[in-house]
Amino acid sequence: MKTILRCSPALRTTGLAACVLFAVSACAGSPSLPDDPFDSNEPGLTMVPINHTDRYALNVVADKYWAGDAGPHNQGGAAACCYPGLKNWNKPVTVRWTWGTEVDPTTKAVLKPREPHSMVAHFPPGGPKRSAEDIAQDKDEPYLCVILRNNDTAELAFSWSATGCATK
Q1: How far apart are alpha carbons 27 and 93 in whole angstroms?
Q2: 86: which residues sit within 8 A by CB, 6+ positions away?
Q3: What pTM was estimated for this model as a whole?
Q4: Which long-range contacts (CB under 8 A, 24 or more apart) does 105-110 make?
Q5: Which of 143, 148, 147 is nearest to 163 (CA)?
Q6: Residue 137's pLDDT is what?
Q7: CA dihedral 35, 127, 97, 82 (to 10 degrees)
Q8: E strands, 9-129, where?
Q9: pLDDT tens digits for 84-132?
């Protein structure tokens, strides 16, 4: 024999009202996130990770914005969107990355485990500025170069082309 449970009309009404309030509150607030890279009058920067080391860099991040992965001695072949455009480029940025695991190809023994790193870096003074050559070549999209100089050091630079990051 089955037992059928029934809710009182007051309980059903209360439950329905709670669901409606929850749904409406999820839609409240501003139409975009406060730190949305596209919600600014300043142009966002495409990020290019550059790696001058022998190790593979995973999840290169500037503040909370993902710049990508960077193979050993890469020349900036990949770009990720976006670092928000700022009015004040004087604030420091935390750059984080993880060096990938290195394994001996013959024995499969781990030579170097994954190694997370982070450091505080600063933007070049004045923010992204185009040179006369950039203007002549009609380069108008700024790039943020996230450069791993050695195993412990990251640096930021601006470029007006993705390939220009490789020369920084």
Answers
A1: 31
A2: 40, 42, 127
A3: 0.71
A4: none
A5: 143
A6: 58
A7: 40
A8: 45-51, 57-62, 65-70, 80-83, 93-99, 102-103, 110-112, 115-121
A9: 888 888 999 999 999 999 999 999 999 999 999 999 999 998 888 766 5
